[in-house]
Amino acid sequence: MTETPDIIYTQQFVAANVQYLDYSEREEAVDLLNDFDLETGESNIQHDVDENLAGYLGYTDRKAATKLEDGLTGVYPTFTQDSLNLTHKQHHELADKIREAQKNKSMLWQGVVSFNPDFLERAKLYNPEIGVVNQRAIKRAVQKAIPEMLKQEELNVPETFWWADVHLNTNHVHVHVGISQIKNTRPLKFGEPKGTFQTKSLKKIKSVVHREVEDKISREHDINLEKKIDELKKDVVDQLKENLQQQQQQKILEQIWYALPNYKDKRRWRASNNSYDFREAKLLAGKLVDDLLKTDLNQDYKKYLLAIKQKDSDNREKYGQNISDSIPKKQKDLHDYLMNRVFDELKKVNAVSTKNNFSERVKWLGIEGNNELIEVLSKQLKNTKSDIKAKKLKKEIGIRKYYVGILIKENKNKNYLDQISELKEKGLKNNFQDYLINDLQEKYRLGVLQLIPRNKRDNDNKTEYQKLINKHVDVSQISVKKINEEIVAQKNQYLDEWLKVVKNTKDPNVQIYLKNQGLKNVNLPEYVDLQKRIMQAKLAIKDNNKKYADNISLRNQKNGKLFKELKEDYEQLKNINSKIDLNQTQIRLNQANNSKNVSRQKNKSKSLAKKENTERKPKNSVSPRLLSKLSSALTSVKKEGQERINALRRNLDKEDDFEKQDRIDEIETETGRSMER
């Protein structure tokens, strides 16, 4: 990659000035003996202290900086939209326009397009051996680029005019550009026309000029890369379409369908809809897309992101290191586009059973999704003035919190089973292994019993539950009211036995156990002593409450010190538990990544098998309950809609991929609506 970009464009703005013409007449500007020599790279030209005051037309076309193209005489090197070299008459007409612009207090935009010599040489527009520059090719490129930039700024009106000159008086060939208006059409800011251009407008002129002057091979590379990006995006979308027809996605699609609000205008079922009532459906659809991008769609998705990364790298080489990373935006755009394809599929569903499967949706949405939705609903509750609506929101928040608790317990139970399997598989069979496996099995069993509602536990369950809770309960969860000598004795006995085993950190079983429990870097004796202190403090507080029940003042005095110590111990325990949770989270992430790698290999095998067996009939896995009513064509539209899309595609070949698709998407949505009617 070159240190400097292929093309740089800078621009400033001032008020138009009639003194422009005076500058073109000065002697030092037309001294051909001091003209610039491209071959030696030397120049004796003196620059004015302030070019703005000197006159910009004279500055841009001064002979010391410009040269006529070979074989041309009797014309100016200045060029405009209509001419590559101005005649004397055209030059005077341009000067008259500038005078008119000054009279009407219009703005003058002064721009410079600067080329890297290496780029011009690669593009075969500059021959360093003879010092010749292909000015005509550069002029035509600028003629192509400026109108597109003006259109971006809504300056493509009859009042706007521009001129430019190719300058050869520095090591970098550059083009000075002047843009103004006979009569201002720009919005006024503080009484003057708006001077600043949008960043994307300045990028536009660079991209168009680069596209027009680069060599054929480089241009083909860019075109092929754009085609590759479009094809890879299409592959991801096609994969989504195929996956939505598979059996394992049917239940998920049902959950999304039930969560969708019953809008009269189904066009509001879009990823861009951030309203409260659409939030659940949006989260569910987003989770579906996320899961597919991590699994079945992952290979094509990764190839797509790599192609985008390559395009960013190419653009930085062309236009400079300040070109931003487009991957985050492209990821979001593609994610939203895939979500919209899911919503489009569901638009075609007729009314089905109104069975309320709210609990299933809540559980499938997961911990993170429910917590996000709880936050949204809590904000809505805070702002609502309706008692009926507030009651409904409180109920939904309560239910979601309840299921989040269940999901957390289920995740913990699964984690215990995974840890048991790893100990059996990788550990060394000995007494340490037996103890640790038994410890995990008891914690798993406690988790199972906790998932059984209290009113449904039989007597045996209740006895087993109480025994396990006394042994494995988090000491911060034991209330002062319920704690007693028996619970403290049982818990202390367990902690002493446990510490005796886990202190043997060289044993492979203990190493595996401590790693999976997130305890690898925790001071274990301190951790045990802290738990014992907390229980002892609670027991002492309970004793004081009973002993000094008739003397509140003395009771508070005795308990005051204990509560202070308990608060400090709680904070210390909280810090240790946070560290443990962080360690366990990292372990789960690593496990998830390993699972994804395995899944990718399976998907790769599926793809190869599919290619080898092209005559295989598609599996009919459509659900009679819901998915039989979904259209097999994910993005199909009426004939008139498709004709509009095809025409639009032909006219937008050079536009940004997602901007183009967004516009196509609008037509598909409208046509889909007309189909429903």
| Termini Cα gap | 56 Å
> Uncertain regions: pLDDT < 50 for 5+ in a row?
18-54, 351-355, 614-677
Name the structural class. alpha+beta
Q: What kind of sheet is the major sheet?
A: 4 strands, antiparallel
Radius of gyration: 37 Å
Q: Would you tell me the overall average pLDDT?
A: 76
**How does the overall form come out from the CA principal axes?**
elongated
How many strands in all? 8
User: How would you spell out the order of helices and strands?
Assistant: EHHHHEHEEHEEEEHHHHHHHHHHHHHHHH
Discrete helix count? 22
Helix share, percent:
55-70%
Strand content: 5-15%
Strand order of the largest sheet: 1-2-6-5
Fold topology:
Elements: E1 7-15, H1 20-24, H2 51-54, H3 56-60, H4 88-103, E2 107-115, H5 117-122, E3 126-127, E4 132-133, H6 135-152, E5 160-167, E6 174-181, E7 188-189, E8 192-193, H7 199-213, H8 216-244, H9 247-259, H10 279-294, H11 298-319, H12 327-347, H13 358-383, H14 387-426, H15 431-450, H16 459-472, H17 485-502, H18 508-516, H19 524-547, H20 552-612, H21 639-651, H22 657-676
Helix pairs in contact: 6-7, 8-11, 8-12, 9-10, 9-13, 10-12, 10-13, 12-22, 13-14, 14-15, 14-18, 15-16, 17-19, 19-20, 21-22
